[in-house]
């Protein structure tokens, strides 16, 4: 039995890629020579690789989509390209790169003022 392939079109890039079903949009972009920044290495831990699905079946968001993008962007059809699996022909618009790093900075913490125990052995 042969593997099913789908076409991923990159709006505004005049590029497309044919990929096997289940491949990520990030991998399709790499195959098509489209530059999508993935600050976290494609692990769903940042939002730099976000794309907007403009045509085709919009899959439900993954937990990483919800955490990184929030309800508003998810509702506007944004998904993380590293988490978005291709199961149909799809067209996406690549978002401009964000100026963010791989670090997450805590801005507010409520840590009890107690001692710290370290187990070294």
Summary tags:
121 residues; alpha+beta; 5-stranded mixed beta sheet; 2 helices
Q: Can you lay out the helices and strands and say which pair or pack?
A:
Elements: E1 5-11, E2 15-20, H1 25-32, E3 50-56, H2 63-75, E4 78-80, E5 90-94
Parallel strand pairs: 1-5
Antiparallel strand pairs: 1-2, 3-4, 3-5
Please describe what this structure looks like:
This protein is of the alpha+beta class. It has one domain: Beta-grasp domain (Ubiquitin-like (UB roll)). It contains 2 helices and 5 strands, in the order ββαβαββ. The chain has a 5-stranded mixed beta sheet. It starts with a strand and ends in a 27-residue tail after the last strand.
Strand content: 15-25%
Q: How is the main sheet built?
A: 5 strands, mixed
**What is the gyration radius calculated from CA atoms?**
18 Å
Trace the largest sheet across and list its strands: 2-1-5-3-4
CATH C-level class is Alpha Beta
| Structural shape | elongated
Written as H for each helix and E for each strand, in order along the chain, the element string is EEHEHEE
Alpha carbon gap, first and last residue: 53 Å
Helical stretch tally? 2
Helix content: 10-25%
Secondary-structure content class:
alpha+beta
CATH superfamily: Beta-grasp domain
CATH architecture: Roll
Low-confidence stretches: none
Whole-number tally of structural domains: 1
Q: How many strand segments?
A: 5
**Overall pLDDT:** 87
